[in-house]
């Protein structure tokens, strides 16, 4: 956003996008493989922007909490980068797009238990394994980082969602056991799954998510208090990974349509970063066949076009 950008123009743009979002209601389906998510009212829409000065703009149901799901994979990778030796991380998980569905198991066997990247389920489970083995009270660390980044001390896990995922854990357990069979995942599978599912079950609103990840637009520095969350180099690397791997086998299409680093979740949230300018978060629960929010994607296209941002 140019420094001269008129805040009221951004407010108007968000209001227009939220007003038009219902055109896409009815397209796609809520995630039903996690029963607790299938109960979410499908036709809802929220949008929020946080600029690098920490100013927040919002429209629609921007303050309604939703299950962040795979957006937690970004949070967990940030914790890993903050606390662990990076060589340990990248020995055990790759940095290449997978071209496969987020929960695919096929490639994992072909590639002998080394997941392609930290944003597919296998990679996120592997990062979680690293966190579980090195960090005491990891649930607490995850929740506190989310609270601190979002500036919202009330953020909490939706334990119903976490339990629902644990009760339907078969596919993630299969991924974890396959990595364990190859000697890449070291911990107890159920313990790793429990931490991973709790991260997915963090409840955050669009405003929370936009605020939490605004530092990625600001060279790793939190806009509110100037604290360094990651170094400028780590920040660039995180954005690169988001651009290439953040939307799984739809990452290429997302780069084409939106052209920003981004991360989606099956709760219907998508966060995107405009480097040097702002973070964006959209939420609408109905998903396309790749597990990405239909109305959210449309909204991001319109937002990027309306803002005239073209960092690539
Ligand atoms: O493990 C799962 O399948 C879910 N808890 C998270 C998947 C997800 O959000 C994929 N995102 N688009």
Automatic annotation (TrEMBL):
GO MF term set: glutaminase activity
InterPro entries the record matches: Beta-lactam/transpept-like, Glutaminase
EC number: 3.5.1.2
Catalytic activity: L-glutamine + H2O = L-glutamate + NH4(+)
Keyword line: Acetylation, Hydrolase
Gene3D superfamilies from the UniProt entry: DD-peptidase/beta-lactamase superfamily (3.40.710.10)
Record Pfam families: Glutaminase
Keyword Acetylation set for record: yes
Top-level EC class as recorded in UniProt: hydrolase
Residues at which substrate binds: 70, 121, 165, 172, 196, 248, 266
Family (UniProt): Belongs to the glutaminase family.
Subunit structure: Homotetramer.
UniProt name for this protein: Glutaminase
UniProt organism field: Salinicola endophyticus
Gene it is expressed from: glsA
């Amino acid at each position: 956003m140019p420094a001269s950008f008129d805040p009221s123009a951004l407010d108007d743009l968000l209001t227009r996008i939220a007003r038009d979002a219902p055109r896409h209601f009815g397209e796609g389906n809520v995630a039903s493989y996690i029963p607790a998510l299938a109960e979410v009212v499908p036709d809802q829409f929220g949008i929020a922007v946080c600029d690098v000065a920490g100013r927040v703009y919002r429209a629609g149901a921007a303050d309604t909490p939703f299950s962040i799901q795979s957006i937690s994979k970004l949070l967990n990778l940030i914790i890993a980068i903050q606390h662990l030796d990076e060589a340990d991380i990248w020995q055990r998980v790759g940095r290449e797009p997978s071209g496969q569905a987020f929960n695919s198991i096929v490639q994992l066997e072909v590639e002998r238990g080394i997941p392609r990247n930290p944003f597919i389920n296998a990679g996120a489970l592997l990062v979680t394994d690293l966190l579980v083995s090195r960090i005491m009270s990891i649930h607490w660390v995850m929740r506190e980082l989310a609270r601190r980044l979002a500036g919202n001390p009330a953020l909490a896990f939706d334990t119903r969602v976490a339990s629902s995922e644990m009760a339907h854990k078969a596919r993630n357990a299969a991924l974890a056991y396959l990595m364990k069979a190859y000697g890449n995942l070291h911990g107890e599978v159920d313990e790793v799954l429990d931490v991973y599912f709790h991260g997915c079950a963090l409840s955050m609103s669009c405003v929370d998510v936009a605020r939490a990840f605004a530092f990625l637009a600001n060279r790793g520095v939190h806009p509110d208090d100037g604290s360094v969350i990651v170094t400028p180099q780590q920040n660039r690397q995180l954005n690169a990974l988001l651009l290439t791997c953040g939307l799984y086998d739809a990452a290429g299409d997302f780069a084409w349509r939106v052209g920003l680093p981004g991360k989606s979740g099956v709760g219907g949230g998508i966060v995107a970063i405009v480097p040097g300018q702002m973070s964006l978060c959209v939420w609408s629960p109905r998903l396309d066949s790749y597990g990405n929010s239909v109305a959210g994607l449309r909204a991001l296209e319109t937002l990027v076009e309306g803002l005239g941002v073209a960092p690539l």
